[in-house]
Design goal:
Length: 386
């Protein structure tokens, strides 16, 4: 009887040991993607995801072009996006507070940085990717390959950012009554960016220079709707009301150098990559200034950077979004909805039908070749003109 009880005791111990070993070998519960993102985000680092973001993809390959039109998973994708110079990577912000690095044309998300608050603006600068986070009043500098946050500034306001892609100046507008009236400027003085000038005086305080008086019909600048910078950062171009202004930083302020005649409501202001041309989409007024071509309907205007007195081209029927690398061609949307690359004289070089392009809210361009990502509201289109 004693031997039997002893055997039972040994058997119980063996079973307990086996159960304990089994529990030890059980895998720990895996962390959710959200938990991993937040854990890495607290260290201002990104994680690898490898997700295919496209719910559906419509591919079209034709003579001289390739395109992929996708609908991304989720409804929080914002129009804030930047394309790498060779057009192979897309950096995309979303309203949930993330920045994504996406490989094209596979739409495979390589990395994602969780910030926690909505990012409202993205831009390229010499040192990396810039992102504004209004709720935190922060401007972030992000390493493009790893999406790690390298540096951040706390500003009076951080809603929109403009930068020189290959230079050292960054501009963050401040608003009064909902309209941008001042610029906070950050200057790259060392490898790490350092705040240099902030709180520039309101632009309307600066008097007109001689060159500005060449167009007496132009309005005094009071605010700006669009802003872009020369590739070298030696001047800025803004639109205010219905005029284009070229301005230069002068001490702690901005001096107006020249302004165009009134052009109607201006949109999609662009400067060519070589810094020689300025263009904008506008509803061309019925009564054109003296010496300008007579046009019907809407279109776009193109000026030489150093002369806003008269456009070098007025292109009817094109909503201009930018220039090709050599500045020889324009790209944008025609009135028939086609996305085109064409000459200033109207000769279409490349075109593609993307569907309801009237909902286009943003176009990102690679600086090498004719590669674009076009935000169509609920869809994104990758376009490569070979």
């Amino acid at each position: 009887m004693l031997r039997f009880a002893t055997r039972l005791a040994f058997l119980a111990l063996a079973l307990a040991a086996t159960a304990s070993l089994a529990r030890a070998e059980e895998p720990l519960p895996q962390k959710s993607l959200e938990d991993r993102l937040k854990e890495a985000g607290a260290k201002e680092e990104a994680i690898e995801t490898g997700e295919i973001l496209a719910e559906e993809a419509a591919a079209a390959d034709g003579e001289g072009y390739e395109t992929r039109v996708v609908k991304l998973k989720g409804s929080d994708i914002s129009p804030q996006m930047v394309l790498s110079p060779n057009g192979s990577m897309l950096y995309l912000a979303d309203k949930s507070g993330s920045v994504r690095k996406i490989h094209l044309p596979s739409w495979r998300e390589e990395r994602r940085l969780w910030i926690g608050k909505a990012v409202t603006s993205l831009a390229n600068c010499k040192e990396g990717l810039l992102a504004t986070v209004p709720e935190k009043k922060q401007l972030l500098l992000i390493k493009e390959d790893t999406l790690k946050v390298l540096y951040h500034w706390t500003l009076d306001e951080a809603g929109v950012v403009f930068a020189m892609p290959s230079g050292g100046l960054i501009w963050v507008p401040k608003h009064t009554n909902g309209k941008p009236t001042e610029l906070q400027v950050i200057e790259q003085v060392t490898h790490a960016l350092q705040p240099a000038i902030s709180g520039l005086a309101m632009m309307q305080k600066f008097g007109a220079l001689e060159a500005y008086k060449r167009n007496p019909g132009s309005l005094q600048i009071s605010t700006f709707e669009n802003l872009t910078a020369a590739p070298k950062g030696d001047w800025l171009v803004v639109t205010s009301s219905d005029c284009i202004f070229r301005m230069r930083m002068q001490g702690s302020g901005l001096a107006i150098e020249e302004a165009s005649s009134p052009l109607g409501r201006l949109r999609h202001l662009a400067v060519s990559q070589d810094g020689t041309l300025i263009g904008a989409a506008a509803p061309i007024p019925a009564q054109m200034p003296a010496g300008w071509p007579a046009l019907k309907g809407s279109g776009s205007v193109v000026f030489k950077v150093k002369d806003l007195s008269k456009p070098t081209a007025v292109v009817e029927g094109l909503a201009l979004w930018g220039f090709t690398r050599s500045a020889e061609k324009l790209f944008g949307f025609r009135e028939d909805g086609k996305f085109v690359v064409q000459s200033a004289k109207g000769k279409i070089d490349r075109s593609i039908e993307l569907g309801a392009t009237s909902g286009c809210v943003a176009v990102a361009q690679g600086s090498e070749g004719l590669r674009f990502v076009i935000h169509l509201g609920d869809r994104l289109a990758w376009v490569w003109f070979k």
